[in-house]
Amino acid sequence: MTGASQARVLFAPETFNLGETTRAVEVARAVEAAGGEVAFMGYSRRFADYIREGGFTFTLLDPELSERDADQLIAADQGRSLRHPFTTDVVRRRVASERAIIERWQPQCIVIGTTLSLFISARASKVPLVYVRPYAMSRGHLTRMETFPLLSGHGAVASGVNRVTARVVGRLVRSVRWKPRSFRRVAAEHGVRLPARTIEALDADLNLIASLPPLLDQRPLATREVAVGPVFAQATGSLPTRVEALATVDRPVAYVGLGSSAGRELARTVLEQVSDLDIEIVSSAGRYLTDRDRAALAPNVQVYDFLPAHLLAGRIDASVIHGGEGTVQTACASGAPFAGIGLQAEQRLNLDECVRAGNAIRFTTRDLRRGNLPAIVDRLLTDAHLRGAARRMRDLSQPVGATRSAEMIVDLAQSTTRPV
């Protein structure tokens, strides 16, 4: 084989995370379009079908991640828990499974999300690692940030605490050397010496920053970080007929999308509050609701388990979302302003970038308790400044990152010669 056909790339997102999974699928499509050969692996069934529906092979590895373990990892990611399922036995079994598929499939590089065990496996197997990730919480961001939204509020106290937190976190990430004992032990078993500092241990050979801010404003990035621009889901399929029919309705349409890190209570509360407005509502938050919850929704609310949200561009007048990278990018590309509730620091950081750009409002659980969401959505629908900024952001937010990522991944794969 010659040219790009030599690029053999294994994709390994954490498949309980919808944002990671969709981002990996978009980049994988671009790698295939460049002539590369692609396969997927993962540990969770939660969003594995999205990969298969995209036309890719997917191998579920041992030990399979249970739904409970996936929820525990989401809770840890959001700062709601310190517990995680990565015992020494689990990490040992994951690394064994990963090294086996690497040996069997012989990839020339591996593309990950937050698939932490591959920081051991890929190094042990001497396969270069590519991390496609958001700017928020990247090494370049953490070492240069001026504010860190530990507190979700907007007042003077929260702003002051968040500025102090940024200075403290910035100093810590330059010096902290903590790594879970299970990872240190298994790395040693495979002859892998993890970098001393924690932040460096989470660095791949190539870190592709799939975010809008560093691409637009040329803010400095860390070594081995490259800004490629937005990557968000371009799912196959079409919108449901009832959603298409809203184009003929003479009143505003709002979209509610809460990604894979929300919960039943949040979904119910958001949908109940926005349904009080004289608007049509389309939501992909159905996975969080029971049959009774769905039956109790107002007639102006349509709920689905999944929607190709990028197709809503030009059809919606506002969005209410969480703060996941892909969902935020999709909202920006729609050309409609949005309101976002950050469920963790990374999501609040994503939203704050858009608040500064002028096309978004960040709200909190306190706003929900006070019933403020209808007024926030009404502002999205009527504020000329928000709507003008959203139109300007639309042209800047097109998904250029997948093609740019694929070019660098293919180049890296083609330059790799694995030891025999």
Automatic annotation (TrEMBL):
InterPro entries: EryCIII-like_C (IPR010610)
One protein family per Pfam: EryCIII-like_C
SUPFAM superfamilies cross-referenced by the UniProt entry: UDP-Glycosyltransferase/glycogen phosphorylase (SSF53756)
Domain Erythromycin biosynthesis protein CIII-like C-terminal: 269-399
Signal peptide as annotated in the record: none
Origin: domain of life: Bacteria
The protein, known as: Glycosyltransferase
Lineage: Bacteria, Bacillati, Actinomycetota, Actinomycetes, Micrococcales
